[in-house]
Design a protein that fits this description.
- It comes from Dactylosporangium aurantiacum.
- This is Monooxygenase.
- InterPro entries: Cu2_ascorb_mOase-like_C (IPR014784), Cu2_ascorb_mOase_N_sf (IPR036939), Cu2_monoox_C (IPR024548), DBH-like (IPR000945), PHM/PNGase_F_dom_sf (IPR008977).
- The chain is mainly beta.
- It has 2 domains: 206 residues, Copper type II, ascorbate-dependent monooxygenase, N-terminal domain (Jelly Rolls); 173 residues, Sandwich (Jelly Rolls).
- Helices cover 9% and strands 33% of the residues.
- It has 4 helices and 20 strands.
- Strands 2, 4, 8, 9, 11 and 12 form a 6-stranded mixed sheet that branches. Strands 1-17-16-19-14 form a 5-stranded mixed sheet. It has a 5-stranded antiparallel sheet with strand order 6-3-10-5-7.
- The longest helix has 12 residues.
- The N and C termini lie close together (7 Å).
């Protein structure tokens, strides 16, 4: 997934896959409530009890090595920090579920977990040992070549539980990188308290009956101009892109243009609240669950299969997006995809929310493009599947 488009691994949140449910039809937003919360988007998190272990499974909890006090670099209000954790695997296992436990949910915006294979473990250790303090700065992906997304958390997600025969392969000697996005808008980027988050892994050592999962990311552009009542230097698109680049570096700053090239296919930028992107399927597979991710200006998101054709299907329909409800949605029945099919993600954002939401009031008006910050935006569909590419 993020190997095919590494920009999407800059995700500011999204979650893993839940077990497959029953029933049929597209996934719809179960509670079309408020677009986002009025206060801290994360709030105080209280984890419910984990579901019972199933045959072949065991729990393993991994925590950050020590408490960490984030401080945003480059004059921004967000820090992405990667921490190396070791599940100490001596034989192959499959990750069949996870429950992230944010210790300081007032500042934890989201978390992503990357598997580091045995062949890259030494590289990860060198990166960790060679960086002052705990962990390292990691806008985008983990910073380690060959990493693979295997778990994640965002507000509204609790325990992630996969179907019993589905999981992410974890070879012996694998490490994990815990990437945490700290949102420091409330403190203007300064230290906002310490955090020592953890994750409870659900591992299955009976690998003969397991089917490998992958998570495919479907990013789309954000080209959201200032409202007619707003003005300022960052309402200019070029200035806004330069600002993202200054805060997060050239790789993240270049995503706006990369997404235009990928999704518009030579057509010029068209500013507006709704954007989409199509991704062709190159290998046969089966979709088991879907999710969508935006930030605080998000209004609606959909994921469609073969839109505009007689066999079109809507896999995800969230007509009133709520940042605090980003749980993964299992499909009622798994959906087969084949070469020649197309997946489309469509997002609608609303720049008018900038003046309404407590977190964004007082932030400078800006032309919003893809960016890693809480005051920036994303349009990201997640498709959890077996096979496919």
């Amino acid at each position: 997934m993020h190997q095919s488009l590494r920009l999407a691994a800059a995700l500011t949140a999204a979650v893993l896959v839940a077990s497959c449910g029953t029933g049929a039809g597209p996934v719809k937003d179960p509670q079309p409530a408020a677009t986002t919360s009025a206060g801290s988007h994360a709030g105080h998190f209280s984890a419910p009890p984990a579901q019972p272990l199933r045959a072949g499974e065991r729990f393993q909890e991994l925590a950050m090595p020590a408490q960490y006090t984030p401080k945003a670099p480059n004059g921004g209000t967000d820090e992405y920090r990667c921490f190396l954790v070791d599940p100490k695997l001596t034989k192959e296992a499959y990750l069949t579920g996870s429950q992230f436990l944010p210790q300081n949910a007032d500042i934890v915006h989201h978390a992503i977990f990357f598997r580091i294979g045995p062949g890259a473990a030494d590289e990860a250790r060198r990166l960790d040992d060679g960086t002052p303090g705990d962990g390292w700065t990691c806008f985008g992906d983990s910073g380690v070549a060959g990493d693979t997304w295997v778990a994640s958390w965002a507000p509204g997600a609790n325990e992630t539980l996969l179907a019993p025969n589905l999981g992410y392969p974890m070879p012996p000697g694998s490490l994990m990188v815990m990437q945490i996005h700290y949102n420091l808008l409330a403190t203007g980027g300064k230290a906002g308290g310490a955090d020592r988050s953890s994750i409870r892994l659900r591992l299955n050592d009976t690998t003969a009956v397991m089917t490998p999962l992958q998570t495919s990311l479907l990013p789309a552009p954000i080209e959201l101009p200032c409202t007619p009542g707003e003005s300022g230097p960052l309402c200019d698109r070029a200035a806004a892109v330069a600002d993202v680049t200054q805060r997060f570096g050239a790789e993240v700053g270049g995503q706006a243009e990369q997404l235009v090239k990928l999704c518009n296919r030579g057509r010029p930028v068209t500013a507006g609240p709704t954007q989409h992107c199509d991704r062709p399927i190159s290998r046969a597979g089966t979709v088991h669950a879907v999710a969508g991710h935006m930030h605080l200006l998000g209004r609606a998101i959909t994921i469609e299969l073969n839109p505009g054709t007689p066999g079109a299907r809507t896999l995800l329909d969230v007509p009133r997006y709520n940042f605090d409800d980003q749980a993964i949605h299992p499909l009622g029945e798994p959906v087969a995809v084949k070469p020649g099919d197309t997946l489309r993600v469509t997002c609608t954002h609303d720049a008018g929310l900038r003046a309404q939401l407590p977190q964004l009031r007082g932030t400078a008006p800006r032309y919003v493009v893809w960016g890693d910050g809480t005051s920036d935006e994303m349009c990201l569909g997640l498709v959890i599947m077996t096979g496919g590419s």
